[in-house]
Design brief:
Layout (H helix, E strand, L loop, with lengths): L2 H10 L5 H11 L10 H9 L5 H5 L3 H8 L3 H15 L6 H9 L3 E2 L4 H6 L4 E2 L2 E7 L5 H15 L4 E6 L6 H10 L4 H6 L1 E5 L3 H16 L5 E7 L3 H6 L6 H22 L2 E6 L1 E3 L9 E3 L2 H7 L2 E7 L5 E7 L6 E8 L2 E3 L3
Parallel strand pairs: 3-7, 3-10, 4-5, 4-6, 6-7
Antiparallel strand pairs: 1-2, 8-9, 10-11, 11-12, 12-13
Helix pairs in contact: 5-6, 9-10, 12-14, 14-15
Bound molecules: guanosine-5'-triphosphate and magnesium ion.
């Protein structure tokens, strides 16, 4: 920068804002600013969900090779460049605390269930709910889609439905129960039916576009069910590794969405019988450690006495294990008494 220009630009910005300006400058970099990336490659990257520098920085070279057909060496160059630009160093505990302060908690309607989760379903996390058929996993998905709008009027839910169990009529009932305008609530739920696991993965990758291009204020993402297609398509042990690899990639796309856009990603999972188990609950979640590990919170749902439901928190970063009971009713869910 020439001296004269430098002087002018300094005059324009007060000194205290210089640091801020630097940060904004970094934010404004696009994928097209990456080394060796022209318009065509940039388009491929964006189409595959790598729409900003952060997405590139946290990608693996293999992912970018797949997404844009670039060589592994160029992919590495792009990732290194993005990482340098992003200052991906350590954050202080204080910064993380500030980030945590932005986390929102979506209420379920049951006090005991909310308490079990430390206040409700958290944004910036993946919440996995597993349990047998009819345990209420899909009902909870509908409830989150409605209640998120009760708390945040312009909140959008992206609902990926793999089993054709999303019911707009149920949303109408729940919206009425929450005292909301059902038409408006339905408008803010974007539903896509996923026909197979590849389609499901593609839909998840497209959510980034809804946020960055269409500017939807996405607060909740539902994947109901996360594992059904994977389970049906990869039968037998021979293909298990491939299934887990795809599931892992899928979970990472979801994790990135949750983290980068402060979204609550709610995924449902079936259970299978564990024939060799004689004591305790003889069921375990599909998807194995890949799903378990990527999920921030894990809830086991089961049917309780007299038509009630019991939610058990089996895994969470900072909450004790515990249980909460509730009823599913026409208006939503409610506590025992
Ligand atoms: P799968 O997808 O089959 O694994 O089950 P799921 O865990 O998704 O179950 P789901 O959420 O579909 O739960 C269905 C159950 O919720 C029904 O059997 C009912 O008991 C209950 N339910 C759904 N709607 C209502 C309602 O309006 N009122 C009441 N009282 N219960 C309801
Ligand atoms: Mg269901």
């Amino acid at each position: 920068m020439k001296l004269e220009e430098e002087k002018q630009s300094k005059e324009k910005e007060p000194k205290s804002d210089l640091k801020k300006m630097n940060k904004e400058e970094k934010k404004e970099l696009t994928v097209q600013d990456l080394p060796g990336v022209g318009a065509a490659t940039a388009e491929k990257l964006v189409d595959a969900g790598y729409s900003n520098i952060m997405a590139i920085a946290v990608a693996s070279p293999g992912e970018l090779v797949d997404a844009a057909g670039v060589s592994e060496a160029s992919a590495r160059k792009m990732i290194n460049f993005a990482r340098n630009k992003l200052d991906m160093g350590f954050e202080s505990g204080e910064d993380l605390l500030k980030k945590r302060a932005k986390v929102e908690k979506i209420k379920t309607g049951s006090k005991s269930f909310d308490e079990l989760l430390g206040g409700g379903f958290e944004t910036a996390s993946i919440v996995e709910c597993f349990g047998e058929f009819g345990s209420g996993k899909t009902q909870l998905a509908h409830i989150l889609a409605v209640n998120s709008q009760k708390q945040y009027p312009e909140a959008v839910t992206v609902y990926i439905d793999t089993e054709n169990t999303f019911r707009p009529e149920r949303i109408q009932q729940l919206a009425k129960g929450a005292g909301l305008d059902a038409t408006k609530v339905l408008k803010n739920i974007k539903v896509a039916r996923a026909y197979n696991s590849d389609h499901q993965m593609l839909l998840a990758e497209k959510i980034e576009d809804l946020i960055t291009k269409q500017k939807f204020n996405v607060k909740v993402i539902v994947i109901d069910s996360l594992t059904a297609h994977f389970r049906a398509e990869f039968i037998g042990r021979g293909t298990l590794a491939e299934r887990q690899q795809k599931l892992n990639k899928h979970m990472h796309v979801l994790l990135r969405l949750a983290d980068m856009h402060n979204i609550c990603v709610y995924v449902t999972n079936q259970v299978m019988a564990k024939p060799d188990m004689f004591f305790g609950d003889p069921t375990q979640a599909i998807g194995g450690h890949i799903v378990a590990h990527a999920s921030t919170f894990r809830i086991y749902l089961r049917k309780g006495k007299k038509g009630s439901r019991v939610a058990k928190l089996v895994d969470s970063p900072n909450l004790p294990e515990g249980e909460a009971g509730f009823y599913i009713i026409e208006e939503g869910i409610k506590d025992f008494s």
